[in-house]
Design a protein that fits this description.
This protein is an alpha/beta fold. The protein folds into two domains: about 5-70, Cytidine Deaminase, domain 2 (3-Layer(aba) Sandwich), CATH 3.40.140; about 100-225, AICAR transformylase, duplication domain (Cytidine Deaminase, domain 2), CATH 3.40.140.20. It has helices at about 5-15, 35-40, 55-60, 115-130, 155-165, 185-195, 210-220; strands at about 25-30, 45-50, 70, 80-85, 90-95, 105, 135-140, 145-150, 175-180, 200, 220-225. The strands form three sheets. It has a six-stranded mixed beta sheet with strand order 6-11-10-9-7-8, with helices on both faces. Strands 1-2-3 form a three-stranded parallel beta sheet, with no helix packed on it.
């Protein structure tokens, strides 16, 4: 995932976040796909492409791969509930429509995030919301560096994300970390700091929040809290 001025650059930078997992996957764009982007996509084995529209030249390129499915996404009203099957029935829960904003952030450390870090924190928080819990998301310059997804421990999720980011040659110095739930201990912020991460966003709410705040203050790390947990199970 990446936010860029052009769809072509957004695709290139998003692919860099995990070019291995992208093989044989599904690609979704929120804007029209043009020919340069289609040519980049064509270089990878991509089974399904979804976008609101395509240029005529882009369609010709994308149709060059046999059995590739090309879909047009229309604006529709999405359901407000999610249904999950359980052992003896189903669980119906409200969809998470909450998106964190800068205006709602609580600045809990002596050091505050820079303007660039704030933009990255909100970007990372959005990705975190849509990732299976327990999750940690690492981002820099509005680009996903890596995420640790669906782990039984938040420390495991962070270590997985750091390992993936470094394996894809990302420089984590000055990057940010987002967590979908609070830190019960300061271990995650300590690991993050020692790997170059300079700013953290998390919901807060642990009875031991102060331990993480103290570590950040002692080591020059900025941390903000949202007050909202984005569990996705």
């Amino acid at each position: 995932m990446a936010t860029r001025k052009t769809i072509h650059q957004a695709y290139v930078d998003a692919l860099a976040g995990d070019p291995i997992s992208a093989f044989g996957g599904i690609l979704i764009s929120n804007v029209e796909i043009d020919k340069p982007t289609a040519e980049e996509i064509h270089n990878l084995f991509c089974e399904v492409v979804i976008a609101p529209s395509y240029s005529d030249e882009a369609l010709e390129v994308l149709k060059g791969k046999k059995n590739r499915i090309i879909l047009v996404q229309h604006e529709i009203e999405l359901p407000s509930t999610i249904v999950r099957t359980c052992l003896n029935g189903v669980l119906v829960q409200d969809k998470d429509f909450k998106t964190d904003t800068v205006a709602e952030l609580q600045y809990v450390t002596e050091k505050e995030p820079t303007k660039r870090e704030l933009e990255d924190l909100i970007f990372a928080s959005k990705l975190c919301k849509h990732t299976k819990s327990n999750t940690i998301v690492l981002a820099k310059n509005k680009q996903l560096c890596a995420s640790g997804t669906g782990q039984t421990s938040r420390v495991d999720a962070l270590n997985q994300a750091i390992h993936k980011a470094k394996s894809f040659k990302f420089d984590l110095e000055g990057s940010v970390m987002a967590s979908d739930a609070f830190f019960p201990f300061p271990d995650c912020v300590e690991i993050a700091h020692k790997n170059g991460i300079s700013s953290v966003i998390q919901p807060g709410g642990s009875i031991k929040d102060q331990l993480s705040i103290d570590y950040c203050n002692e080591n020059g790390v900025a941390m903000v809290m949202t007050g909202t947990r984005h569990f996705k199970h």
